[in-house]
Amino acid sequence: MDPETKPPHRGLKKGLYVIPTLFTAANVAMGFLAVLSSIRGFAVAASDPVAAAVYFNNAAIAIGLAILFDTVDGRVARATRTATEIGVQFDSLADVLTFGIAPTALMYSWAIGPTFTENSPGHNAAVFLLFAYLMCGAFRLARFNLQATRPRVLVEGSPKIDKKAFVGLPIPPAGGLLAALVHFAPMPLNAHGNQPAHFYSYVLLALIGILSFLMISTIRYSSMKASGSGRPGFLLVLLLAGVGMAVWFYSQYALLAIAAVYVSHGLLWWMVRAIASRLRRAPADGSHAG
Fold it and tell me: Which carries the bigger pLDDT value, residue 2 or residue 199?
């Protein structure tokens, strides 16, 4: 084709496909840096807990920034209509690193490794739960990709695709909650003493088990993809501005609260719906029995 007869803005259109990929690459970079910072922190956790806390906090911040990049790349791809199949797969592989491997490395370096003796029952149980978290996160991403790309070939009984909700807890907020805990208290757990460190570690392991279950469950979580237009959209902008200010001035408290609210809201709504459904069935059962 003659260069002069090429459609206008064709080169610009091709360039738009690169933008979401750049954000996904930034996501990968944050996960990589989080793993490195966790390793550096673990190396000095016993000898210099203060220096280790700086590394752990940097790792937590990197995971938090990765959530921002992961959110932006999808919205940019949809806004510019540049979503591709390879982009979906690349994004999922990035999420396995940043919200699967990086948080487990951070949890081990910050809590498990400095607290438990290697090959002790507590250490082995912790390693098993961290591996279970990683496997559940990978399964969650695989299920999401299957539902997004081949919804008609799912096994019978699988939930229908709903763009307004995710099926199961997404892995970014799961990893984000773990990172927010470290950002809230970056000092390695061994610095608090032997007994408190063991207690906090067992509580942390219980949380990791709950997050693992929520990721592979069928509990629905809001995707927040339907918000952003009309008056509700304007109110959302104001809310986001307020949240941004809270994060800027009180990041330790705000980020932990945001992550905890999102992780818990799906479970709470599931409980409310289950109770409401049971209450609706109760009068019908009673009238039938009468």
Answer: 199
Burial 86-125 (b: 16+ CB within 10 A, else e): ebbebbbebbbbbbbbbbbbbbbbbbbbbbbeeeeeebee
Evaluate the CA torsion angle 234, 236, 240, 246 in order and state its sign.
positive
Cα atoms found within 13 Å of the Cα of residue 61, Cβ hemisphere only? 12
Angle ∠(80,237,180) on CA atoms, nearest 5: 90
Give the residue ranges of DSSP H helices in 150-193.
Answer: 171-184
Which of 8-12, 234-238, 282-286 is predicted with the least confidence, judged by mean pLDDT? 8-12
Q: What is the pLDDT of residue 82?
A: 65
Q: Largest Cα–Cα distance of the chain, in whole Å? A: 84
Q: Taking each helix axis as running N to C, give the angle between helix 121-149 and helix 85-95, from 0 to 180 degrees, rounded to the nearest 10.
A: 170
pLDDT, mean over the chain: 83
Query: Which residues, in sequence order, are CB contacts of 37 under 8 Å at separation 6+?
Result: 55, 56, 58, 59, 62
CA 225, distance to chain mean position in Å, is 16
What is the CA 184 to chain-centroid distance, rounded? 17
Classify 152 as helix, strand or coil. Answer: helix
Give how far Cα 286 sits from Cα of 277, 281, 289, Å: 15, 9, 5
- For residue range 173-209, what is the model confidence (pLDDT) as tens digits? 999 999 999 999 999 999 999 999 999 999 999 999 9
Mean pLDDT of 1-22: 59
- Alpha-carbon distances, residue 131 vs 60, 100, 107, 138, 254 (angstroms): 19, 9, 11, 11, 29
